[in-house]
Write a structure and sequence with these properties.
This protein is mostly helical and 110 residues long. It has 6 helices and no strands. α1 crosses α2. The protein starts with a helix and ends with a helix.
C-alpha cells in the first residue's frame, strides 16, 4: 500500500508542477519546473522508490520513444535520411572501434 501512495503522490506532483509551469509569468519549460518540484519533494520528504531497470525499459521507454517518433516531422526526416544514416553508422562504427582499442590498451590479454 505504501508504494501505491508514493506513486499517487508523485502523479499529483507531476500535475501540480505542470500547472505551476503554465501559471508562472516567466516562460520556463515544464520539465525544469518538474525537476525543481521533485527536488523539493525529495529534500522535504523521505520517500524512496526503487525501480527495476528492466521494468523501466519495458514500461516507460517504449511510450516515450513512440511519442517522439510520432511527433517528428516526416518530410524533414525524409529530406535528411542520408545525413541521419551517415551519422548513425559513423558514430556506431567510431564508438565500437574506439572502445575496442581502449579495451585492448587497458587489458592487453583480452
Amino acid at each position: 500500500m505504501e508504494v501505491v501512495s508514493i506513486v499517487l503522490l508523485l502523479l499529483f506532483a507531476v500535475v501540480v508542477s505542470g500547472a505551476i509551469a503554465r501559471i508562472l509569468p516567466v516562460n520556463i519549460p515544464a520539465p525544469l519546473v518538474q525537476i525543481a518540484f521533485g527536488a523539493a519533494i525529495g529534500m522535504a520528504a523521505d520517500l524512496r522508490v526503487t525501480l527495476d531497470p528492466e521494468l523501466f525499459l519495458l514500461v516507460f521507454l517504449p511510450p516515450l520513444l513512440f511519442i517522439d517518433g510520432w511527433r517528428i516531422p516526416k518530410d524533414e526526416l525524409l529530406k535528411d535520411v542520408p545525413v541521419v544514416v551517415e551519422l548513425a553508422l559513423g558514430l556506431v562504427l567510431t564508438t565500437v572501434i574506439g572502445i575496442g582499442f581502449f579495451i585492448d590498451w587497458l587489458i592487453p590479454a583480452m
